[in-house]
Amino acid sequence: MRKTIGIYNLHMQARGGGERLTLVLAEHLSVNHDVLLFHSGELNLRVLERSFAVDLSRIKLISLNHAELIWKAVAKLHGQRIPSFSLHHYSLLTKLKLDLFINASYASSLACPARQGIFLCLFPHELRETSDVKRLMRQIRRVLTTWIEKSLTGFDAQNWPESYSRVIAISRYTANWIEQLWGLPSEVIYPPCEDMGPPLEKEKIILHVGRFAAPQNEIASHHKAQEILLQTFRDMKEAHRQGWELHFAGNIGPNKESGHFAARLTQDAQGLPVMFHFNASFTELRELYRRAALYWHATGIGFAPPDHPAKQEHFGITTVEAMSAGAVPIVKRSGGQVEIITNGVDGIFWDDVSELLDQTNALINAPDKRRLLGQAAVISSTRFRREVFSADMDQVITRLMGTEPLLTMF
Questions:
Q1: Is-contact 286 196, C-beta < 8 A?
Q2: How far apart are CA 127 and CA 183, in angstroms?
Q3: Which end of the chain is more exposed for a tag (fewer CB within 10 A), N or C?
Q4: What are the backbone dihedrals phi and psi of residue 209, each rounded to the nearest 5 degrees, phi first?
Q5: pTM of the entire structure?
Q6: C-beta separation of 316 from 322 below 8 A
Q7: Radius of gyration of the chain (CA)
């Protein structure tokens, strides 16, 4: 029986890992159900399909409008930035009588507007201020706004996490922090990762894939640290002489600051064997993965994991994709990355820049070890393929809604 399923993500223009997850799930569910994708702003379907190798022809896109004056007033009482979408969108979406609502929007505080709901959590944002003063102010604001919220929506929006039937975490790392910050249980389903193989004959290429987002911008809460990788490669003079190149690939964030950041990186790389592949298509990206011998990842560098858990890599989709094409990952040992790699078997961990430099130089001079690690990486990557994600989500939805298992299209 066909159901009407709404999927919600307000960050589609960023075209990051969360947006890939959103679109892969939407494509899969649209085979047997009516899928509505709720977003903000204008979206270019061709760009999304080109970036993520998905078919969106069966999906209805719905752009949600901005908050009206009354919702802005409520948001201001809460101390939230204006406009606040959560209450406004809750009011709009409840009228649609969706069979299932899936929230895949990072840092969303939207209460579930349907009888059944799944919150796909990349990483839990703080619900409680640590400052005593801020906590007191929040309590005062809650008293002033609770009556307004209940009158307008019929729901206490302060308790939005509990409104979802299931919380899905993209890694055990995320699940642990959901328990700590929200006090809620969650089920781990790893995000869908593309099979970028088979490997081609490996070239002297170190690859990094990640969104180019300005460090000072909130969208870069876990910044990809391309500037640190560039400086590290600048110091690898012997590798330059041997013909090694560093390639950066990724989408540029949807704001001027991110564009300036990408331009500054390009300028700083002048005179070095460094290449940039901005807004590369899926086909171009796959070609890079297949040619690359090594893969670098540095998210979380400079931030101690216990003090800055959100700034670590929440999972590591690009690490898995590199592995699937036989590129040996050399990645920072933190966050969800430790769930992907077995150190010394299918990849290498590092803890500081000097170790990154040493480990990279060691592998540059050990082609046989690179080959063995790359072969093991391909095998390990199969745990995280798109069809595994789709099957796991089917099981959750089947248990939740009592429907027949969905047909898998992959």
A1: yes
A2: 11
A3: N
A4: -125, 125
A5: 0.86
A6: no
A7: 22
